[in-house]
Amino acid sequence: MPEQRDPRPYDALLLLSFGGPEGPDDVVPFLENVTRGRGIPRERLKEVGQHYFLFGGVSPINAQNRELLDALRKDFAEHGLDLPVYWGNRNWAPYLTDTLRTMVTDGHRRIAVLATSAYASYSGCRQYRENLADALATLRTEGLPVPRVDKLRHYFNHPGFVRPMADGVLAALAELPEETRAGAHIAFTTHSIPTAAADTSGTPDDHTEDGTGGAYVAQHLDVARSIADAVRAETGVDHPWQLVYQSRSGAPHIPWLEPDICDHLERLHGAGVPAIVMAPIGFVSDHMEVKYDLDTEATAKAAELGLPVARSATVGADPRFAAAVRDLLLERAATERGTTPERCALGALGPSHDLCPVGCCPARTPRPAAAGADWTGPTAEAPA
């Protein structure tokens, strides 16, 4: 008999993601959505879109979200969790507002939200909350019921996120030539962001002013240590490692987190390192930044150097990650019902906060953001 679990007060889960084009004609309109308000000329967007055109104009992210959606529904059903799962994107169909409109039409009023971004930052957390606020405001103007939405906590250090990545690093090490394996370094990669945004990531207590990166960098370093420790425990080899960055964009005079992965490969090759594992710990799935910046650009740089590299897998739709989402949902549901559930986390930082406090990952220009302590919208006092 399946195990019965209590998701109350939630009556639905929303998988909230970035979105991506699904054909050549989608690329420029998608990029216009992503860059809306920045005044970037269409011709420049066509240049930026070349990465997508290399893959037929299709980003892998939507297909991967469909796989995760199926994995979540399967896991919920197997554990007796009677809760529908919906999917909406910030920048491409299915759009967030359309999905929320469908959810309220279907009768849902208390919605838990899982964002496909595991770490604290403006673009990885607060911007999703701003998009939720915009969508709720649209529903209200349309005269529709406005649900209460609660964003599940950051899951960067949940075992169901970390352990599949550790297994991925072990598998990547096994792909390297045997004579280079023991001396291989691990390059843990994530999306570079401006140092100013990194320094203000996380709660106000996490903020820094010296370019060291606030909660964004601290959380990635914590995950990298956990994975490196797991690899050492499994292999008996203490592989040197470093957190490095990829996918930088924006004006060159603005400081961004460094070093870049390609620069890192050059430096290690010059130092005589025999092989590298590239481990994209900042990404939930193998979307465009992984497929192009690592599998294409960085792999080409390694080939140019004659440096053996292997890239470890992201979590994707791993059943352990689906189980982690179920765990996060039930944990938050229990908290909302007034109990104190067990909160799973690896590493030194412990489980993240449920409710983003005032000043958490602030925007350059203040905008309403739902699902946080600073939300004063129409559902702020919605009954449980």
From TrEMBL:
Listed EC numbers: 4.99.1.9
InterPro entries tied to this protein: Ferrochelatase, Ferrochelatase_C, Ferrochelatase_N
Family: Belongs to the ferrochelatase family.
Stated role: Involved in coproporphyrin-dependent heme b biosynthesis. Catalyzes the insertion of ferrous iron into coproporphyrin III to form Fe-coproporphyrin III.
Primary localization class, coarse: cytoplasm
A Pfam family per the record: Ferrochelatase
Alphabetically ordered keywords of this record: Cytoplasm, Heme biosynthesis, Iron, Lyase, Metal-binding, Porphyrin biosynthesis
Recorded catalytic activity of this chain's protein: Fe-coproporphyrin III + 2 H(+) = coproporphyrin III + Fe(2+)
Protein name: Coproporphyrin III ferrochelatase
Protein residues bound to Fe-coproporphyrin III: 59, 128
Organism this protein belongs to: Streptomyces yunnanensis
Keyword Signal carried by entry: no
GO molecular function per UniProt: lyase activity
NCBIfam families xrefs: PRK00035.2-1 (NF000689)
Cellular compartments annotated: Cytoplasm
Highest rank taxon of the organism: Bacteria
Binding site for Fe(2+): 191, 289
